[in-house]
Amino acid sequence: MANTDNKASPQHEVIIIGAGVSGIYQLYRLLELGVDVTVLEAGGGPGGTWYWNRYPGARFDSESYTYGYSFSKELLEEWNWSEHFAGQPETLRYLNHVVDKFDLRGHMQFNCKVKTAAFDEAARLWTVTLADGRTLTTRLLLTAIGMLSAATMPNIEGVESFKGESFHTYYWPREPVDLKGKKVAILGTGATAVQIIAEIADKVDELTVFQRRPNWCAPLHNSPIDAETQAKIKASYDEIFERCRQTPGGFIHGPDRRKFHEVPEAERLAFWEELYNSPGFGVWIGNFRDVLVDEKVNAEFTKFIANKIRKRVHDPVTAEKLIPKDHGFGTRRVPLDTNYYEAYNRDNVHLIDLNETPIERVTPAGIKTSDHEYPFDVIIYATGFDAITGAFDRIEFIGTNGQKLSDKWFDGPLTYLGLQTTGFPNMIILAGPQGGSVSTNFPRGIEEAVDWSTNLFKHLRENGYSRVEPTQEAEDEWTEHVKETYKYSLLGTTKSWFTGYNSNVAGHDTLRYMIYNGGAPRYRERLAQVAEQGYKGLALR
Ligand code: NAP
Questions:
Q1: Rounded to the nearest whole angstrom, what is the distance from the C-alpha of residue 508 to the centroid of ligand 1?
Q2: Helices (DSSP H) in 145-236: which residue ranges?
Q3: What separation in Å is there between the alpha carbon of 75 and the centre of ligand 1?
Q4: Is the C-beta atom of 153 inside 6 A of ligand 1?
Q5: Which are the contacts of 436, defined by CB distance < 8 A and separation ≥ 6?
Q6: How many CB atoms lie within 10 A of CB 373?
Q7: Ramachandran quadrant class, 195 (left: phi over 0; alpha: psi -120 to 50; beta: rest)
Q8: Of 64, 383, 496, which is best to mutate to test ligand 1, by the most ligand atoms within 8 angstroms of its C-beta?
Q9: Could you tell me where the beta strands, DSSP code E, fall in 121-192?
Q10: How many CB atoms lie within 10 A of CB 435?
Q11: Ligand 1 contacts CB of residue 425 (under 6 A)
Q12: Residue 521 Cα to ligand 1 middle (Å)
């Protein structure tokens, strides 16, 4: 941005915090414009979520070819995904490949933890303080800090006292962990735990799963991509991305236009069987369009899935424990599984229902519930994240008048388009609350946010603006609109990270409007309109 009004010159035009999927792409786009930009990354390398989450079985459940970046034909052509749903090592290799191919690494600073970022109104710049004691200044601050990057440990007494090995899944050690012959405990049954449990069940001596609330899981149906399919995928990238642009979630799966009652029962069941037996999220987001809207219809599909669980789990008592009773299918994030339920058919896998026997404490030897003390060699905490806003709370962002972002968002985020928040000028939130990426296939939503903010940057630069902040009116309107979108879907009715709940974080026990539920096409349309109207809702100076 031009320094036209005698404001102090910052060290960088732009600082991006985070070298994950969004930080990498944003850096690429800014370098294209010749911008002086640096990326500050807490990890020892690029990759964000894929750098950290090295737990056994980690993989995405977006189709690989919809997860890669769409901006470079050459990249699409040269990269071969080996599986329909690639594992973490491959995705990390991919992101490193992108970083090297486009010469991005030299603009990234690793092991660089940002502690505070404060806006200096007089100088119109951000001062960023790092854990290593350095201070950097920038005109524009872009946050690419991840939506699931603030891991939370359970608020259970004695966690520190355990003498064996223990780790949160997000911080899974980089060096191999030998679980062979070990007695292993895992806390949690979210998407992460579902992957680990299935992956390690046959590799450990004993695996004990501590479950508070079960989730509805459906099979991923992963498989290798053969040469012929690879060629087909490469020949159809344009159609694949166009399809993703049209669906609400940015996936190749979009809702079936029919309503449940419009279809005869036999046809309905055949359709559901087909969804259940097909790869990916179709079973969740490719269903009849009222399955995630109408409670009665949702209950019908929920029954269908409950019966699938009963078929997959041999012991009827265990099966009933694994069937959620507090929410319908798809009203929380659906973990896609590979032999998850089948793991419970093994003699060495045990399910402890914490509703029957709650954990009293972690002891030096293991875990003590209300009826038994279980000894373990390893405890795995698959206990999730202070999602979406947690990463923002862990950096002290100080805006105008000394206001802290964590205070402003304490009762829930307030944003304009999920991309900016009043009182924090010149800060663009690439992936955060109330934006388009959190409820979509992340890279698809992230590309939209990055392209939009790059165009905004150009606009600021070309017009000599050095300050950009949403108006209060625009923020109020957007935040209200986001709340409204919770009425369209049953997803807003269930306690989970989607709705801002986390039992391990004080104050996160009420509904917070974290997610824009209006769908990617409508979000994209809104972004385009705002830009066409000269960035309506943003005060530019
Ligand atoms: P999560 O879905 O929030 O699950 C956390 C689990 O820990 C829940 O089962 C929770 O129980 C349990 N838990 C938390 N605190 C506890 C406590 N104090 N005592 C007992 N149990 C406790 O977290 P996650 O599994 O890490 O997944 C988070 C998100 O990451 C996913 O929804 C998904 O978006 C993403 N992810 C994606 C993939 C993929 O692409 N395949 C894989 C993994 C993760 P309650 O349900 O009772 O709270």
A1: 15
A2: 191-200, 227-235
A3: 33
A4: no
A5: 418, 445, 448, 449, 516, 520, 523, 524, 527
A6: 12
A7: alpha
A8: 383
A9: 125-130, 135-143, 165-168, 183-187
A10: 29
A11: no
A12: 28
Integer-rounded Cα Rg, in Å, for the chain is 23
What are the pLDDT digits (tens) for 407-448?
A: 999 999 999 999 999 999 999 999 999 998 888 999 999 999
By CB neighbour count within 10 A (0-12 exposed, 13-18 middle, 19+ buried), where does 332 fall?
A: buried
Residue 133: which of 154, 158, 113, 161 has the closest Cα?
Answer: 113
Helix (H) or strand (E) holding 240: helix 237-246
Domains assigned to the chain: 12-46+104-150+386-540 (3.50.50.60)
Amino acid at 378: V
Distance CA 42, CA 48 (A): 9
Q: Is the CB of 463 under 6 A from ligand 1?
A: no
Whether the CB-CB separation of 502 and 384 falls below 8 Å is answered with yes
Helices 21-32, 88-101: crossing angle, 10 deg rounding: 10
> What whole-number distance in Å separates Cα of residue 346 and Cα of residue 205?
11
* 3-state DSSP assignment of residue 266: helix
For residue 374, the surrounding DSSP H or E stretch is strand 373-375
Task: Express each pLDDT in 301-353 by its tens digit.
Answer: 999 999 999 999 999 999 999 999 999 999 999 999 999 999 999 999 999 99
pTM above threshold 0.90: yes
Q: Is 155 in the pocket of ligand 1 (CB under 6 A)?
A: yes
| Cα angle, residue 392 at apex, residues 390 and 393 outer, rounded to 5° | 65
Query: How far apart, in whole angstroms, are the C-alpha atoms of residue 238 and residue 251?
Result: 14
Ligand 1 in reach of 60 Cβ (< 6 A): yes
The sign of the CA dihedral 341, 343, 347, 352 is negative
| Res 2 pLDDT > 90 | no
| Spatial CB neighbours of 467, under 8 Å, sequence gap ≥ 6 | 124, 425, 426, 539, 540, 541
Using alpha carbons only, give the angle 336, 337, 338 rounded to the nearest 5 degrees: 140
Q: Does residue 392's CB lie within 6 angstroms of at least one atom of ligand 1?
A: no
Distances in Å between the alpha carbon of 482 and those of 129, 261, 357, 418, 499?
33, 29, 39, 9, 12
How far is ligand 1, taken at its centre, from the CA of residue 47, in Å? 21
**Is the distance from the beta carbon of residue 383 to the nearest atom of ligand 1 less than 6 Å?**
yes
Write out pLDDT tens, residues 240-260: 999 999 999 999 999 999 999
